[in-house]
Amino acid sequence: MGQTKLIKSISEMKEIVKDLKIEGLSIGFVPTMGYLHEGHISLMECSKRENDITIVSIFVNPIQFGKNEDFDKYPRDIERDLKICKEVGVNYLFNPSQKEMYPKGYSTFVIVEGLTEKLCGAFREGHFRGVTTVVNKLFNIVKPDRAYFGKKDYQQLKVIERMVKDLNMDIEIIGCPIVREADGLALSSRNKYLSPEERKSALSISKALFKAKKKFEAGETDPYKLIKLIKNVINSYPYTRIQYVEIVDSETLEPKTKVEKGDIIAVAVFVGDTRLIDNIEL
Ligand code: PAF
User: Fold this and answer.
1) Which atom of ligand 1 is nearest to the CA of 131?
2) pLDDT number for residue 206
3) For a Cys-Cys bond, which of 9, 141, 146, 216 suits 172, CB 3.0-4.6 Å?
4) CATH T-level assignment (fold) for domain 5-176
5) Where are the alpha helices (DSSP H) in the chain?
6) Per the confidence metrics, is the pTM higher than 0.70?
């Protein structure tokens, strides 16, 4: 097991980063909200391969959750997460408090327009404003050379890429492949909420995406037909309630009228009370 140093204070993290920079070491950064799983581990491993130092952050960011969302019950287990970071060989685990991240009087936010109004943004008001604000703050503290994001949150990845480009940040954003369970379910900390019966129904999401991709590869380019196929599969399982199914351009996230290679099928589905997202690149 490696030595992962747990850092709680912003000033301490900044001092460490300052020294790492003086030593000329490259920093890879994996921002997370904790309850780490294989998806996060793949990001950490990627960072370890490409950088001298890997920093992981765990911060359940209150401002990216809506009023009726799961901020309070979001799974938290820092001891378990620290153990995972040690096993993977992460150098620093940064776990700031809410009080220090958003002290009384906090009033600055970062907004990416356009991209954030589509897909999940249409249903989760203020979500991406919360994400870009906290990621910006974390970038200012950790000053990474490279930052790693999972493609499961595809829209988030595109929004962060846009922010980094628009604000001239010297950070390379790296999107890493979705990690799935052997049966196809995309890994997510929220899978923990699923009952065994709901988990069976959640499998309909990846099944539907794989089926649509196959149909596209067999020559179907009509988005409405592919979307219908996906909806039929998901709706045939109990406990599922589709929020959206869209086929979009991989950069602009605009819906397509004719599907092409490289497009993204993105879905959000409630399984019981749990909102799950997934996507597939065609
Ligand atoms: O993807 C997540 O876990 C979060 O949205 C992130 C990027 C850590 C910001 O809170």
Assistant:
1) 9
2) 98
3) 146
4) Rossmann fold (3.40.50)
5) 10-22, 38-50, 78-88, 98-101, 127-142, 154-166, 196-217, 223-235
6) yes
